[in-house]
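Subject: Re: docking follow-up (zinc ion)

Dear J.,

Thanks for your patience while I sorted out the input files. As discussed at Tuesday's group meeting, I've set up the holo structure prediction with zinc ion included as the bound ligand rather than trying to dock it afterwards. The sequence and the ligand SMILES I used are pasted below, so you can double-check that they match what you have on your end before we go further.
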Amino acid sequence: MAQPKRQPRKPADLTDYLQQRVHFGDLIIPIAVSLEADDSVIVSTLYSGSQWPKRESPPPGLAFRFCRLSEAPPVQVRNFAATYGVLGPSAAAFFGHRTPRPRSAKTWTEPVRLWHKAASMTRALGRLAAALREREPGAASDWAIASAREATPIDSRHLSVAERRELFLHLLDQWCEVARPTERSEWLKGDGPSTRVEGAAAQSSLLCAVTHELRLAANSEKGLVICTSCHYAYYPPRMVPIGQPRKFCDEEDCGLRGAWRMAKQLGPTGPTTATGGQKGALDG
Ligand SMILES: [Zn+2]
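The structure tokens for the complex came back this morning:
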């Protein structure tokens, strides 16, 4: 008798397991941060006598706030470091900067232009993720920034859609590796276990949180979108349909105000949808 024909096995549905709790390792907040050498370097005091740095869990949306430092004045970079911590030694190695010799074990020195580079890289990858989601090629300037570390310069104009997607994933993976992350399970107080992602060094906790939040947002169902007003990528509170002509993040000059301004400039060409970002200011 002939053997009954085997039905092809249905792949396991992992959706249930993928509704996971994930959190990032604590940020190490310096005791004091100052600008020195004509505002070109940031000097952070990590320890002082018996005073230890504060530890705080990274707030959601940190990656998108970090992007805004790409062209920020030194004082804004200093304030960010004082609130969320330093970049750490891996950032300098990634961009081929010589790590400045610390004056003492208690301090940490970083050039402001290193912060600009790290923020520009995050901004470029966020915008490329948003462009590729929209089936658009992405700006040549973003490709140039994101691929600056490649051995041979990449001219994005000659790449096919499939090549752009491949290259983007490679560059995103590379940036996510910067803090040499590890993950482990942690039992949260009054809660269940959660996956904790943290950098190899305590000083790289900011960069670990920024790169992995970018990856989680880019890989999520909603994905990233580019704000029509400020041209930064942001994580929308609701799904934004592909091809929606105007969308606004919740930065002060964008959001509803940006939508009104643009509607006024363009005239009555149809409804404008304001789709706010991380802070959810437009949720109500
Ligand atoms: Zn905006």
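A couple of observations from a first look. The first strand starts at residue 22 and ends at 24. Confidence is low (pLDDT under 50) at residues 279-284.

Let me know if you'd like me to rerun anything.

Best regards,
T.
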